[in-house]
Known about the structure:
Elements: E1 4-5, E2 10-15, E3 19-24, E4 27-32, E5 37-38, E6 44-45, E7 48-49, E8 56-57, E9 62-65, E10 69-70, E11 73-74, E12 83-85, E13 95-97, H1 101-104
Antiparallel strand pairs: 1-9, 2-3, 2-8, 3-4, 5-6, 7-9, 10-11, 12-13
Amino acid sequence: GVPAIAEHEGKIIYTDTDKIVLFGNGDTLSIPLIIYQRSNKNTCMHQKPQVQRGKCIKKGQILADGAATVGGELALGKNVLVAYMPWEGYNSEDAVLISERLVYEDIYTSFHIR
Length: 114
């Protein structure tokens, strides 16, 4: 999940899920975004635009976040509270308990592309 970063300062004149169009330095630059492409590990690469039309941006500003970034910073995983329940001496009857909310809200769901 690589973020898209502005190479020049300018003004956003168009944005959607496919591309971001930036006007600056007297020319128009179209920045294509990665949309549901397969990575070499069969996971999904995808970029989400983080800028709106009409906004002025500076060089180095984040234009789109990848799957593993939030605001251009690495954001892997989620913190979750779990419980380990030993049963008479740490054997095969032990259990790790998690909330059903993790399943129902697709907290750890991922999809793979073949």
